[in-house]
Amino acid sequence: MTDASIALADIAEYAAREAGAVAAEGFRTPGLEFSAKSNLHDFVTEYDRRSEIRAREVLAERSPGSRIVGEEDGETGEGPLTWYVDPIDGTSNFARGIALWSVCIAAVRDGEVVAGIVYDPIADHMFRADARGAFLNGKPIRAEGMTQPERATVLATFPPAAMLTTSRTEKLEAHAELQDSYSHVRDFGSAAIGLCHVAAGWADAAFGFGIHAWDVAAGSLILRRAGGVYRGYADGEAQPRDADYLHRHYCGTVADAEFPLLDSIMRLQTRDG
C-alpha cells in the first residue's frame, strides 16, 4: 500500500499544481466576476470551473478508470478509486483578492483516504499526505502546538451565517465563550488551509460546519499523518473514524490537546444534523 499511496499522491500533486496554475491566472485580476452560489456568502468564479476542468484532465489521463467527485461538475466515472477535487477551497477569499485559498485533491479507496494534497499556489505551500507521513514542500510536519485553551489559537468560521437563523442568542453566547477561553480565534475562510495549519503546528485547532467531502478529505489525512486528531460530527456526536470525511461537521486539533469546550460546541451545534 505504501508504494500505491505515494504514486497516488504524486498524481494528486501534479494535478493540484496544474489546477493551481489555472486558478492563479485569475487571482487579483481587475474586474474578476463572481456570483453567489448557494447564498450571498458563497461565491463561485469562472476560475473554479477552469481549475477543476484541468484537475479532471490530469486525473483522467494519469488514473484512468477512476471515479471523480468535484465541487463544480459533480460525479463522473466509476471504479474502485475515487478522487475528491475542490478546485478552489476558499473561493470567497479568492474572489476578493485575499490570499487564503487552495486546491484540494484526495484519493479514496474502499472508503479510506489514502493520499491527499492541499496546494496553496500563492504561498507555494504544497501540503501532502501519503502512507509515509505528512509533508510541506517535501519536509515532514508534525501537529504539535499549544494544548491548553488559554494559549491556543483556534481557526473557525463560527457561528456561520447559515446557523444564525435558529437559536441565534445561544450560538452567539457560545462564540463569546470561545473568545473568552482561547488565546486567539481566527476565521480563515478555508477549511483545508485551516486543517493544514494545524498539521504544521501553526495553529492548534480548526473546526467548521456544513462542509463537503472535497473540503476536508485531503486535509483530514494530512492532519492525521502529522500526528493530529480529526473528528467528524453528526447528530450531536463524534462519529466513528471510518469515512468520517463524509460528515458535514468537523474538528481537528494538534496532538494531546485538551479542548473540552470545542467538543461541547461541536456536540451542541450538530445535534440537529
Key descriptive features of the protein:
Fructose-1,6-Bisphosphatase, Chain A, domain 1; 7 helices; 2 domains; 28% strand; D-Maltodextrin-Binding Protein, domain 2; alpha+beta; 273 residues; 16 strands
Describe this structure in words.
- With 273 residues, the chain is an alpha+beta fold.
- The protein folds into two domains: 2-140, Fructose-1,6-Bisphosphatase, Chain A, domain 1 (2-Layer Sandwich), CATH 3.30.540; 149-269, D-Maltodextrin-Binding Protein, domain 2 (3-Layer(aba) Sandwich), CATH 3.40.190.
- It has helices at residues 2-26, 46-62, 91-95, 168-181, 191-199, 213-225, 260-269; strands at residues 34-36, 43-45, 67-70, 74-76, 81-89, 102-109, 112-120, 125-130, 133-136, 139-140, 153-156, 184-186, 205-209, 229-234, 237-238, 249-253.
- Strands 4-3-5-6-7-8-9-10 form an eight-stranded mixed sheet, with helices on both faces. A six-stranded mixed sheet has the order 12-11-13-16-14-15, with helices on both faces. A two-stranded antiparallel ribbon has the order 1-2.
- The protein is globular and about 50 Å long.
- The mean pLDDT is 93.
Topology:
Layout: H1 2-26, E1 34-36, E2 43-45, H2 46-62, E3 67-70, E4 74-76, E5 81-89, H3 91-95, E6 102-109, E7 112-120, E8 125-130, E9 133-136, E10 139-140, E11 153-156, H4 168-181, E12 184-186, H5 191-199, E13 205-209, H6 213-225, E14 229-234, E15 237-238, E16 249-253, H7 260-269
Parallel strand pairs: 3-5, 11-12, 11-13
Antiparallel strand pairs: 1-2, 3-4, 5-6, 6-7, 7-8, 8-9, 9-10, 13-16, 14-15, 14-16
